[in-house]
Structure formats: structure tokens, C-alpha cells
Amino acid sequence: MKKIILASNTSWSILNFRLNLMKALQNQGWEVIAVAPYDEYAEKIKVAGFKFYPIELSGKGTNPVKDFRTMINFYKIYKALKPDVICHFTIKPNIYGTIAASLLKIKTINNITGLGTLFVKKSVITSIAKLLYKISLNKASKVFFQNSEDYDLFISMGLAAEDKSDILPGSGVDLTLFKPNTNTLKRGEFTFAFISRLLWEKGLKEYVEAAAVLKEKYKNIEFILLGTTEEGSAEYAQISDIRAWEQSGYIKYYGVSDRVQDFIASSDCVVLPSYYREGVPRILLEAASMAKPIITTDSVGCRNAVDNGSSGFLCNPKNSVDLVYYMEKLFLMPIEQRMEMGLKGREKMISQFSEDIIINKYTEAVNSLTDKV
Questions:
Q1: What secondary structure letter does DSSP report for 164?
Q2: Mean pLDDT of all residues in the chain?
Q3: Which of 2, 175, 245, 345 could form a disulfide with 311 if both were Cys (CB 3.0 to 4.6 A apart)?
């Protein structure tokens, strides 16, 4: 039996974003193995019928000692498992996992799932990251990008070879799991939802500022937050911030949930005013798939998920005034018009962002690489 590894920086991301791909590969006769840091979701991967191997991986920073240790950890696991192909997701697996695999002459498929602010800020770290990408992607057998702008950037900078690069429609969306539920449509009360890691760069400050303005003006609007934070990190909102927002009456925080679809269903619009350099935000695809209008920014990755004025709205990044304008515009729309916007979003997901498209691209790439063996 041919063996394939999927490696990422969290078990959560493998379970939530790659499970159907793993099932498709398994159905084609592959032995499928997940490699990621151990967390509570690792056990769920095992329950789903897949082998799981934990790896110590420094998820943040560029400490050369820790990163070298990460590469050695990948090397040891790959040498022991002897896979035919490895699929890497997220920055450090893409870089250090690929270098480790190349030393063992194992074919790899990399997925550039977004660049964050790494390529926006000019710094020594950015220069190092570009060099490491150039080294690792040169050794990859195939490189997938989630939007054309990242693809063009990497090709123009010589970080990836055009002949082995391709574009995917984000991570795709499971159209059967994220589907419309007309029973949740309501008149009167209106709910906006921000569902994401609570990073400032996801536009959290702008969302809270917009909530404060609109809540003062309209009493029948709710603004909810759902997502993880990281105490002690300046990049994230802290629990003290969130409690202050709740006490103000502007925001309701619901922590984290494995049932994101329930929160989307009970909302009227999902908002992600991100200026983080996204691949294509999964939450926007999930919301549109459930026929909810979306509001996001006219920025890399985000703009791919919406047809502006048709399935939602694009606002200017880092601009809470512009965000208020579009949120209020949507709030004041007749419900029938909002429903029409939502249905257009669902149609867009079916035609452009179905997870089946991603699975087919991956299985074609995997089979192409192994056919050449």
C-alpha cells in the first residue's frame, strides 16, 4: 500500500480542513497518516480512522536552534515512516518539512495557506523567510497557492517555479456540512458575527468600533465574537479586552466551538474586516455556503470570497467608518434582498469553492507524482 503523510502546524487544522481529503485518498487505496503537534484533536483524527504521529514544532518565531530542531524532528519521522508523498500545510511544515523530505528524496506537495503580515512588513525576519521559502519550495515537487496574488508574488520574486505551481480556490468548503437553513431566518433582531482567531490583524478592533457605533444607534442588533485568543500575546485581544467589550454591552463573546455552523446559522451576516494577508479565509467560504451575506475587506485573499454588491460587500482595510457604512447598509436591507445576496454567495461557493475541486486537484497531483516513480 502506498503511504502519504499530511503535515500541519496543528492537529485542529488537519481535522477541520483536511479530513475529507484524507478520506478521499484512503478510498483510493492510500495509507494516510497525519503529522502535527499533539492536541485534543489528535484523538479525533485517530477515531476517524487515521494514524497520527505527534511532532514537536515551534509554531512561532524564528529561533534558529528551535527551527533546526523542528527540521530534525520532521526528518526522524519521515525516515521512520518512509512515505511515498508528503503534503505540507502552513509555514514551518512547508519550509522545514520540505527540506527534511528532500534529504530523504521524498516527493512533497506544499500549500501556501496565506502569508499573514510576514510579506507586508519589511524586516530581517521577512528576508530570512523569503530565503527559506526559496530554498524549500525549490525542493518541493508541487506548490499550491490559495489565491492568484500570492502565486504571482512568489513567481515574480523567484521563490517558486512556475512549472510546478498551481492555484487552488482556498481550502474549499464542504457544501454538505455548510448548507442553508431557512429555519434560522428571523425578522426584528439582527446578528453580526466575527468568527476567527482574535488577532488584531483580522480587523477585530474595527469590528468592535463598528459595533459600538451601531449599537448606540440601533438597539435590535447583536454583535458576537467566536474564536481563540492567546494570553500574553500582543497580536491577540486579551480576555481583559473582551470582558470590557462585554461590559459595555456592545459585544457577546462565545469562546470557541467545534460547531461553527451553528453560529453561522444563527447569524444574519458574517464579518471579517481582515488586513492579515489571507489565503482565502475559510470562515467566509463557510458563511457564504450557508447562504449568509458576508462583509470583508478589499484585500488579498478576502476579496476572492465575495462578489462585491452581489453576495456581500468589500470595505476598505483598517477603516471602521467604511465598515460601519456597509454593515448598516446590510442591516437596513429588506430581508428578501439579504436572502438573495446569500443565495448568490451559495451559488459562488458551488461553482468556484467546492471542496471537491481541492480534493480532485490533490488526488491528480499525488497520482501524477507517484505514477512517475
A1: G
A2: 92
A3: 345
Instruction: State the amino acid at position 317 in one-letter form.
Output: P
For the residues 188-216, what does the mean pLDDT come to? Answer: 95
Of the candidates 259, 270, 265, the one whose C-alpha atom is nearest the C-alpha of residue 207 is 270
Question: How far does the chain reach from its first CA to its final CA, in angstroms?
Answer: 14
Phi, psi of 72, deg, nearest 5: -65, -40
Q: Exposed (0-12), middle (13-18) or buried (19+): which is 220, by Cβ within 10 Å?
A: exposed
Question: Looking at this protein, which amino acid is placed at residue 152?
Answer: D
Query: With bands split at pLDDT 50, 70 and 90, how would you rate the model's confidence at 338?
Result: very high
Checking if the pLDDT of 276 tops 60, the result is yes
Residue with cell 476517524: 48
Structural element, H or E, at residue 35: strand 31-36
φ/ψ of residue 314, rounded to 5: -110, 125
Which tens digit of pLDDT belongs to each residue from 226-262?
Answer: 999 988 889 999 999 999 999 999 999 999 998 999 9
The CA-CA-CA angle for residues 227, 46, 36, to 5°, reads 60
Phi (first) and psi of residue 240, to 5 degrees: -60, -40
Burial 91-115 (b: 16+ CB within 10 A, else e): bbbbbbbbbbbbeeebbbbbbbbbb
Query: Nearest to residue 8, comparing CAs of 48, 50, 54?
Result: 54
**How far is residue 209's CA from residue 346's CA, in Å, rounded to a whole number?**
29
List, in order, residues 6 or more apart from 166 with CB less than 8 Å away. Answer: 142, 143, 144, 145, 361, 365
* Alpha carbon distance 79, 299 (integer Å): 41
Does the pTM surpass 0.90? The reply is yes
Say which amino acid occupies 28.
Q
Q: Which of 123, 121, 71 is nearest to 95 (CA)?
A: 71
Percentage, residues of the chain above pLDDT 70: 95
Amino acid at 147: N
**Burial status of residue 69 (CB atoms within 10 A of its CB: 0-12, 13-18, 19 or more):** middle
What is the distance, to the nearest Å, from the Cα of residue 140 to the centroid of all Cα atoms in its chain? 22
